[in-house]
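Example 3.2
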Amino acid sequence: MVLEYESKMMICQLNKNLVVLFNDYVSGQRFLSFIGDNKVSETASQLIAHSLKHYKTSFLKLIPEEIAGALPN
């Protein structure tokens, strides 16, 4: 399920994690974030690949500290 609010943000699920597509308020550039503890490395890798393909960025933003700590270097 994807919900859209005035084309500024979209949400969905990936590996039972909540994924959010944001627009940066300053630059307008789109970026992805997620919250959840299921298949964290796999989820992050899939989202980075999607972001690179669709938004030409290879990073995630606004990742909670607990999730970031579970990611490999």
